[in-house]
Amino acid sequence: MPIHSVDIVCGLAWGDEAKGKIVSYLIQQNQYDWVCRWSGGNNAGHTIYIKRKKYVTHIVPAGILHGIPSYIGPDCYIHIESFIKELDYLKENGFDTSKIRVSPKAHVITDDHIEQDSYYKKTQGSTGSGIAPCAKDKYGRIGLLFESIDVSLFKNHTEQICLNTTELFGSLLCEGAQGTWLDINYGNYPYVTSSTTLPYSACSLGFSHHKIRHIYGASKIYDTRVGHDPLFPDSLDNDKELLSIGHLGKELGSTTGRKRRVNWLNLDLLIQSIDLTGCTILIVSKVDILNTVNVFKLFY
Ligand code: IMP
Ligand code: MG
Question: Is 125 left (phi over 0), alpha (psi -120 to 50) or beta?
Answer without folding.
Answer: left
